[in-house]
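step: validate -> pass
step: tokenize input -> pass
step: predict -> running
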Amino acid sequence: MNQTLFDAPGRFYKGNLHTHSTLSDGVLSPQDVCLRYADRGYDFISLTDHFVGRFDYPITDTTRMRTKNFTTILGAELHSGANSAGELWHILAVGLPADFAPSNTPTFQPRDDQETGPQIAQRAADAGAFVAIAHPHWSALTEADARSLQAAHAVEVYNHGCDVECDRGYGLQTLDTLLNEGRRVTLCATDDAHFATPDHFGGWVMVKATDNDPDLLLDALKQGHHYSSQGPDFHNILWTDDEVTIECSAVNSVTVQGRGSGTSQIVGDTLTRVTLPLGRVASSPWARISLIDAKGKRAWSNPVWKTDDGWV
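step: predict -> pass
step: emit ->
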């Protein structure tokens, strides 16, 4: 059966879910940020300024930057409470209402009288946001930290800014740990762009929706109708009980990952359609796919889960 993503109606829209402007600690104005992404061919962004009192708790209004071919989703990077490293939580929330109530977070230092990270994540999800665990490697999150964010829809598995600036850009181990424990989370790649360094245009999501509309894009994100990339594209994924067929842009490596160390892989040159036996992955409750192209750029599918009706 086809993965639900490729059965869904509509087309793919390219977007960045994690971005900052001069309304928090970014270099460019909200308008300039939107113009940069639109000029680069993105279909949408979420401008997620830091939601702290130092910046007057911004939910940056980007509605006036929407055009016929480019749209925006309101959001913020939320902060409240201390993680196990004793540092302030960073939680990505895309699709927040403009009147989302401020937290008690005057600065980037945690306070004893704040709501916890899991509490503000739950409040964001209850308000309708797509919630992601931001840059788990950069934040030095433990398994217990990640596990505590029960409201999270996704894990930020690639953060371009963290990768460029301090080589702590990946969160795949956090993702797989949660999947191994049965958490049905998806994943996202982002920029976390501030435009002070080359931290932009390096990681994105491809979201399948019937129109480039903020509400439709948000619904698609919550349903897992997206994949994440630094460059390669998925064109189709066809699962059966014991093998998977992947159609994609030209890559040099295709890997299926499952529970524990279970994998199945093919390495070659300009691979665009491959069929892989699942092997040990066939007995896993979940599976996901990674692509790597000749430049070392990666793309990741969301996980599918084994049910009585096959992989979904």
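step: describe -> The helical segments are 4-7, 30-39, 117-126, 143-148, 160-166, 172-180, 214-223.
step: cleanup -> pass
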